[in-house]
Design brief:
This protein has 225 residues and is mainly alpha-helical. The chain has one domain. It is built from seven helices and two strands; from the N terminus they run E-H-H-H-H-H-H-H-E. The protein has a two-stranded antiparallel ribbon. The chain is globular. The termini are close together.
């Protein structure tokens, strides 16, 4: 007789959302305690970039030791999002792109993490490309998931709320571009704050998806025999 066991997957999404968010705040705290960055409110004071919190001392090892597994987990997270939407009956063309875009975004995060803390033009280029691809492709994945839910009759209101969050993320990104063009000196003093805000909002979207997985009882079945 087959032994069927079900494993709920919302905890995986929860970890995927919380690990990057907790990591950047933990490395910031440790960097402050070790004197590598100053104490401030990075979401407003723009006193340090996320990258700088993981470059020196103990934070260097914390950042790499958590962000690399987070990148691997991100690959699984976006693949499961595609499976979840199909399970709900969403079969739009955008759903097929989610696992692949999520794969590139997660690999980009891994490349950025590996290059962080190393000097040289090559490492600097990898960091820049990695962070741009990670933020932009993760946003597109979240937009596609939100739009997919919006097209579902039972999830359209939730999908609309997630799309509103995506609009907020996009607005923050557009505002940063505008400020960089019209007030470059002011933007140079605040660009790190935009990075912190975008990171928070992107992970907040992933956290929201984790609770939706729990609400929907999204799970995997394993069996033996």
């Amino acid at each position: 007789m087959a032994d069927h066991r079900f494993f709920h997957l919302w905890w995986l999404a929860l970890v995927a959302a919380l690990v990057p968010l907790i990591t950047i705040h933990l490395t910031y705290t440790v960097s402050v305690l070790e004197g590598h960055v100053e104490l401030c409110m990075p979401y407003w004071d723009s006193c340090t970039s996320i990258s700088r919190t993981g470059r020196h001392g103990t934070s260097y090892f914390i950042f790499k030791g958590t962000m690399l597994p987070a990148a691997l987990l991100g690959i699984l997270f976006w693949w499961l999002n595609g499976r979840w939407l199909r399970q709900l009956g969403v079969h739009s063309s955008g759903v097929a792109w989610i696992p692949w875009l999520g794969l590139v975004a997660s690999v980009s995060l891994g490349a950025y993490t590996l290059a962080l803390g190393h000097a040289g033009d090559g490492f600097n280029l990898i960091r820049r490309i990695g962070v741009v691809l990670y933020f932009s492709l993760t946003f597109i994945c979240e937009l596609l998931v939100s739009a997919g839910l919006r097209s579902h009759p039972l999830w359209k209101h939730t999908g609309m709320r997630l799309l509103n969050l995506c609009q907020l993320i996009l607005a923050v990104g557009i505002l940063s571009v505008i400020l960089n063009g019209v007030a470059p000196e002011f933007y140079s003093r605040k660009d790190d704050a935009f990075e912190w805000i975008l990171a928070f909002l992107i992970n907040a979207h992933a956290l929201w998806l984790a609770f939706l997985w729990r609400k929907n009882r999204f799970r995997v079945r394993l069996w033996v025999g």
